[in-house]
Amino acid sequence: TPPRAAGAGAVLTVANPKVLFICAAAGLAIGTAGVGEARVWPAVVYFTVVAGSTVALPILAYVASGDRLDPALARLRDWMERNHATLVAVILVVIGLLVLYKGVHAM
User: Residues 73, 62: contact at Cβ < 8 Å?
Assistant: First the structure.
């Protein structure tokens, strides 16, 4: 059901190390951008909306279309399960490059 999916998504988001690394990298990027406080909050809100959309959109799509979306979601889940290692590697490389760039740029 949609409420169960929302609850599971919230729990998995907090417990997922990839999400913690992404949020830490985003916080580092926003915090070291050298912009004033007036520009930091919109960046935080933007990141939160974009990051939250990855959970919210499938839930809202399921609520709107019901069982018609089941085959597409099953195919997406299967693809993500097959390519999990590659997805994690790409995410961690991107985060590492961002942190490396910020570190070199700050020197």
Answer: yes
What is the 3-state composition of the chain as percent helix, strand, coil, each rounded to the nearest 5? 90, 0, 10
Per-residue pLDDT of the chain (107 residues; tens, 9 = 90+): 788 888 887 787 777 777 777 888 888 888 888 888 888 889 889 988 988 888 788 888 888 887 888 898 889 899 999 999 999 899 889 888 888 887 888 77
Burial 86-102 (b: 16+ CB within 10 A, else e): eeeeeeeeebeeeeeee
Contacts of 29 (CB under 8 A, 6+ apart): 98, 102
What's this model's pTM, rounded to 2 decimal places? 0.58
Comparing CA positions, the residue from 79, 22, 72, 68 lying closest to residue 47 is 22
